[in-house]
């Protein structure tokens, strides 16, 4: 999954240095055939909705993510930058592993926390294989090291070509706590062995919930 330059955000009100960011490899490198991800997102069924944000939390790294609608649950690996200034990804050989981009805010802080996941890998579904099925109003839960569980509600879905990735919308500073979930989608380029598009879920922090 290729993400163009200008990854930025705020962490607890402190600016994070802008850096040119490209995801090193497609999130579907090991794909050998077609899948549900080849189908375009039905944007007609994903009408954006307004979601009121809750008061921001203090900084605390995330430990896991759960998305009930699509049956996704994973621990979260911190993802940094490779030596060539590309974003690290979870191993394609462990497609059910999701990761949090550690130069974005922690989930629940002011700004857009960013979580990346494979759509598939090694011929198997990935943690975000069904991300395209999310709709405005769906819930995302993220556990944090401080023991709190941050609840987010999807307010918009998007399918964007990788060559036109909306970096400002994904990484740009926000006035409230936000979340971005990113994977691959759209048609599959067999020559490049990657999908041509990205599926992006935009969600807003609505408060904390009790475990269980």
TrEMBL record:
Q: Which GO molecular-function terms appear in the entry?
A: hydrolase activity
Record Gene3D superfamilies: Sortase
Pfam families on file = Sortase (PF04203)
Keyword check for Calcium, yes or no: no
What are the protein's UniProt keywords? Hydrolase, Signal
**Leader peptide range in chain numbering:** 1-36
Superkingdom of this protein's organism? Bacteria
What are the coiled-coil residue ranges?
none
Keyword Signal listed: yes
Q: Which InterPro entries match?
A: Sortase, Sortase_dom-sf, Sortase_F
Please identify the protein, giving its name as recorded: Sortase family protein
């Amino acid at each position: 999954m290729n993400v163009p330059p200008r990854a930025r955000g705020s962490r607890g009100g402190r600016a994070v240095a802008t850096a040119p960011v490209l995801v090193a490899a497609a999130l579907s490198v090991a794909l050998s055939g077609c899948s549900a991800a080849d189908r375009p997102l039905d944007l007609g069924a994903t009408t954006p909705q307004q979601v009121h944000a809750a008061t921001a939390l203090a900084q605390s790294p995330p430990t896991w993510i759960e998305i009930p609608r699509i049956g996704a649950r994973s621990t979260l690996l911190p993802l940094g930058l490779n030596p060539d200034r590309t974003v690290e990804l979870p191993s394609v050989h462990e497609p059910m592993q999701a990761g949090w981009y550690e130069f974005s805010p922690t989930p629940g802080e002011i700004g857009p926390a960013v979580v990346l996941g494979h759509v598939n890998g090694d011929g198997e579904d990935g943690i975000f294989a069904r991300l395209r099925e999310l709709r405005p109003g769906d819930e995302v839960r993220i556990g944090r090291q401080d023991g709190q569980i941050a609840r987010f509600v999807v307010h918009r879905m998007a399918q964007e070509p990788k060559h036109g990735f909306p970096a400002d919308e994904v990484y740009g500073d926000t006035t409230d706590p936000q979340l971005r979930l990113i994977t691959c989608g759209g048609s599959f380029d067999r020559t490049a062995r990657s999908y041509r598009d990205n599926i992006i879920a935009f969600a807003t922090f609505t408060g904390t919930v009790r475990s269980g």
